[in-house]
């Protein structure tokens, strides 16, 4: 599907957002009859937790890991795959308990400006996460400006198309802005998904064809393929983001141990990429998370320190 870039940021309709919000509310954290006292022996409080996430390789890996850790101390975590907007809405209105997939301060700024006052920011769980336009190393261009110049006929070679992810993603909004700022009037931004974009990238590389994708780090693609970011001399994509953990107001009182674990959950690019590679190689995400927890006991102890 080719999306007019000037309308892209409004692509996800209010109806879709409300549907996802209703689904999360129905299956979310405020289940009657499941509360325990926050001062009981295990310090868990309310045990049923709902965590929404977006189906990007980064977030599939990280959310299954945090689910495994929370489950291991006694929580019952439900992961809900949604789009970016519904993810923010669900945590902000209390239909979900937490999200560990907030790209701040740049990529998700529009969502933060709208919902930030209703959220509690526990800080970064992973630092230095850049994003931008990416091409295979063999593609003979180096800068976003080369797209306007049509250097080496890159436009014709790619049918004037940049292959992106889901239309509600903050990165798609920034890419749209970049296309306006760099004057890429002939170009279209194709909204797909992380999985579809990676399938297109894999096909292009196997055939040694030109392709431009909206990608970010960490991502397993950088361990499998020789890729490069296009230079962004006008700094539209900005400095690298951090990936933050956000929780609903009241979680600290309702589920104090979960709040503590989520606040202490911090790791690095290499650890996350290891989980992503396992999943991309065919390991079920839940099994990849179990493997990670087993192989990183000392780190998990840091995340769960202070939990009874």
TrEMBL record:
<protein>
    <submittedName>
        <fullName>Glycine betaine ABC transporter substrate-binding protein</fullName>
    </submittedName>
</protein>
<keyword id="KW-0732">Signal</keyword>
<keyword id="KW-1003">Cell membrane</keyword>
<keyword id="KW-0472">Membrane</keyword>
<dbReference type="Pfam" id="PF04069">
    <property type="entry name" value="OpuAC"/>
</dbReference>
<keyword id="KW-0813">Transport</keyword>
<feature type="signal peptide">
    <location>
        <begin position="1"/>
        <end position="26"/>
    </location>
</feature>
<dbReference type="InterPro" id="IPR007210">
    <property type="entry name" value="ABC_Gly_betaine_transp_sub-bd"/>
</dbReference>
<feature type="domain" description="ABC-type glycine betaine transport system substrate-binding">
    <location>
        <begin position="47"/>
        <end position="295"/>
    </location>
</feature>
